[in-house]
Design brief:
The strands form three sheets. A two-stranded antiparallel sheet has the order 1-2. The protein has a two-stranded antiparallel ribbon with strand order 3-4. By secondary structure, the chain is mainly α. It is built from 16 helices and six strands. It is 62% helix and 5% strand. 46% of the residues are buried.
């Protein structure tokens, strides 16, 4: 890592005004939509690749109270192109896919219920719209992959976009990053690349890295090893403590699931679960200890303990259905934090505050549903192992951060879950996949 001299000044961090939709931005979005439509019409698997390639880049512009982004334009083209193929929706009822759909439905219902006592119902509507988009994206990717079960475009796009995001992010070590920290008089940059911040980049890489690492262990190639190593370097340079530890845990899980290759041995070996429990406990303890030594920020943020206590205080005002999805940062003034505008730095406490006990149950079920279907099989398929490990890592990371709030992370995760879910379908399994009795 390059350590900048004390005199180095980072560009100021501020919230820029929302740029309005103009002719140039509208033309760019139209071109992205047409391109995504064309490749999806040609082959649905290419449409999935287009979604993966565009997720990290927003280029947001605003009109009529909503945002227009490159991923949204690509998603619109993907959906139109997929409809051109007249796909069947019956496969979405497969028992391997149903848990994910139930989880999405549960989250949307919990958010709708949270509007009962919400002070800012427009924020609830925005959150519901985001999760409806996640649901449609998950269903669309499932249908596309079921109709065109060729994973080559998917792997190509995953490798390419991970390399690009990693390179753009690492370059900030040399050209300067928007955020950083000071250590013994030295200024250290925290890279974020095209993502909104270092923590979000850490989460995005935390999804991509286990998948690529699983591919490396099964299908070794020098370019793939190079991209995986590049992503690992970028992950470390985010200096996101919880993200780095969670990603390391996810990659360790990949090793345990793929090596050794004898399924029977892995099925009855208990030590990985014991080790995993120890690592999870250590992760939580270390995270809690480090959170206790945080200092207050003068930029609309606050420390973990302060934000967590605020979440509990807000939850007590509406324990069953919460204060309303998207209302946490808007209601912090009610608990003595009028100048703080951020989330709770924990998915679970954010859900408890905004969605109440109903929403916390829905959130825990979503975490379970993102892991359990993959955990019921013993497979060396990289997309299955990677999706499982990425979901476990994200569940850990969510103890200390709230990440699927950001579409670049949330959309990427649900795309990966959809791809992994289709890999679990009986008709697509091979002799390397053995189902574990529930």
């Amino acid at each position: 890592m390059i350590v900048w001299q004390p005199g180095y000044v980072y560009p100021p961090v501020f919230n820029p005004p929302h740029p309005p939709l103009d002719f140039i931005s509208a033309a760019i979005f139209a071109l992205v939509l047409i391109a995504a439509l064309a490749v999806t019409v040609r082959r649905p698997a290419n449409g999935i690749a287009a979604l993966i390639l565009t997720v990290p880049f927003a280029y947001a512009h605003y009109a009529a109270g909503t945002s227009f982004t490159i991923p949204k334009a690509a998603f619109a083209g993907f959906v139109i192109g997929l409809l051109w193929h007249r796909p069947s929706l019956r496969d979405l009822g497969d028992r391997r896919i149903r848990p994910f759909i139930y989880a999405l439905a549960a989250m949307i219902v919990a958010m709708a219920l949270s509007s009962l006592f919400a002070e800012h119902r427009d924020a609830v509507v925005r959150e519901i719209a985001k999760w409806v988009e996640y649901a449609v994206m998950f269903a669309g990717v499932c249908i596309a992959f079921l109709n065109d079960p060729d994973d080559r475009p998917i792997w190509g796009s995953l490798v390419a976009i991970t390399a690009l995001v990693s390179l753009l992010s690492i370059s900030q070590e040399f050209i300067g990053a928007a955020t950083g920290l000071f250590y013994h008089g030295y200024s250290i940059p925290r890279i974020s690349g095209p993502l909104e911040g270092p923590t979000q980049l850490s989460a995005w890489l935390g999804i991509a890295l286990p998948i690529l690492f699983a591919r490396v262990l099964v299908h070794r190639s020098l370019p793939l090893v190079a991209v995986t190593a590049l992503a690992a370097i970028a992950e470390v340079l985010t200096i996101s403590r919880s993200g780095i530890v969670a990603t390391a845990f996810a990659c360790a899980l990949v090793v345990l699931l793929i090596v050794p290759s004898h399924a029977a041995a892995r099925r009855f070996t208990s030590w990985p679960f014991i080790l995993g429990g120890i690592l999870v406990a250590a992760y939580v303890v270390i995270g809690l200890a480090s959170s206790g030594h945080e200092t207050a920020q003068p930029d609309g943020l606050a420390t973990h303990p302060v934000l967590w206590q605020a979440a509990l205080d807000l939850w007590r005002t509406s324990p069953f259905v919460g204060i309303g999805a998207g209302n946490y940062e808007l209601d912090l003034g009610q608990v003595g934090l009028p100048h703080v505008h951020t989330h709770a730095n924990s998915l679970y406490l954010q859900s408890l505050a905004e969605l109440g006990l109903v929403g916390l149950v829905a959130t825990l079920y979503m975490v379970y549903a993102s892991i359990a279907p993959f955990g019921r099989v013993i497979s060396r398929r990289p997309l299955i192992v990677g999706a499982l490990a990425a979901s476990v890592g994200l569940a850990l990371h969510h103890v200390f951060d709230y990440l699927i709030f950001y579409p670049k992370v949330g959309e990427f995760w649900w795309i990966i879950l959809a791809i992994g879910a289709v890999e679990l379908i009986d008709s697509r399994e091979d002799s390397r996949t053995i189902e574990v009795a529930a």
